[in-house]
Structure formats: structure tokens, C-alpha cells
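Exercise 3.2. Students should predict the tertiary structure of the chain below and write it as C-alpha cells, then compare their answer with the key that follows.

Predict this chain's 3D structure.
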Amino acid sequence: MKIIATGIALCLLSSSAFAQARPEISTMSCSAAAAMVSSRGAVVASTGPNSFERLVSHAGYCTRGERTVPFFTRTKDNAACMVGYECRDQAEWDPNK
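Answer key:
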């Protein structure tokens, strides 16, 4: 019985470690949000009550055929803070097509 209880406890602890909430950018300062993206490289963050974005620090986090586009959003202290970049399909942003 002890083995089962220990196993259940370990499963609960390990599952809570993987169930991290998305960081809420609107509650952070502009510099804190930008630093978070920069330090993590890529992060999925909440940008509003029902929205989220995958933000990256540079194009190395995008897939082939994508490019970075600056991402501006509201933070606690700035209405239009550039917190990082979005990865967008290159074809969408090619002015020659």
C-alpha cells in the first residue's frame, strides 16, 4: 500500500511541474517581458484574456521559410512594447509576390 501511495504522490508532483501556466505579459513591465523572451529564447505567453502568442528572441527559433516580425503588445507600463518577435511565413511578407 505504501508503494502505491508513493507512486501516486510522485505522479501528482511530476504532472504539476509540467502544467505551468502561460506568463501574462499585460501584468509585466515592458523590460521584464522583453527580458523573459530574451532569456528563454521562445515562449508562449498570454497577451490578453483570450489570446496568446509564441514569441521568439531571434530567427533561430523559427522554422525554415519563416522570418521574424517585431511583436508589439500592451504591458503594465507601455501601451506598445516590443517584447520580441513572431515567426511568420516568408511568403506572407514578400513584397514581390
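Discussion points: The chain has a mean pLDDT of 84. The radius of gyration is 18 Å.
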